[in-house]
Amino acid sequence: MRRLLPLPLADELDVDALAEHYAYPDDRAVLRANMVTSVDGAVTLGGRSKPISGDADWYLFGLQRALADVIVVGAGTARAEGYGPGRSRPEFAHLRERKDQASAPTLALVTRKGDLDPDAGYLGGTARPIVITGTAGFHNLGEVAERADVIVAGDDDLDLKVALEQLHERGHRRVLCEGGPHLLGTLLDADLIDELAASLSPIVVGGDAGRMVQGAKGKLHSFSLDGVLEADGALFMHYRRKRSGS
Fold first, then answer.
1. Kind and range of the H or E element at 18?
2. Which helix (H) or strand (E) holds 135?
3. For the whole model, what pTM was predicted?
4. pLDDT, tens digit, for every residue of 87-96?
5. Cis before 181 (ω within 30)
6. For a tag site, which of 9, 61, 114, 125 has the least CB within 10 Å?
């Protein structure tokens, strides 16, 4: 894997160089979205993102998780992709130790309906998971509340800004969102996405696969390009949100 931006070019980047490339700032909380897309804009094939990803993308996927305090994902995406609990690979353990983080990131599942399976694999693991919902969905959680901490954000519909504030209060300041597209759309509308790690896979899918962001209002959101990596024809772009005064 080599870096195209920022200069100078590096032919091969080791794990520590990659961790520096994707490092979260220490002085503020950040929500980073991480998604993969094909050249023609597809984010899934057969309802899953894995067929679009390559080896380099999966490596960086694991690295991104290792750098995060919490992984936020929509419950529908967790079911479709066969999520397990939050984990960190052994080769990234020293990165978490360096930042005094827990051995594994916490998994936070976003659900409006609260219809989660209490026996689902993603409710296990060493880090007790979090379920984020509004009052409309809380009454359906049932046994799930015994296996996960519950954040009720919003008096009726789910308020992701309130949910994010509660994650920060729990010490989760390095926030990684893995989608899906409708969750990203809601976060984008609420202007809560600070960074975007977008992987461009060198394949064309065709068909009617969805876009990276769905359900968002038609409005421009400007990002600045912070860095680009390349491996096996795939591009890995890192963007930061352009905000007033920046």
1. helix 15-21
2. helix 135-138
3. 0.94
4. 878 999 999 9
5. no
6. 9
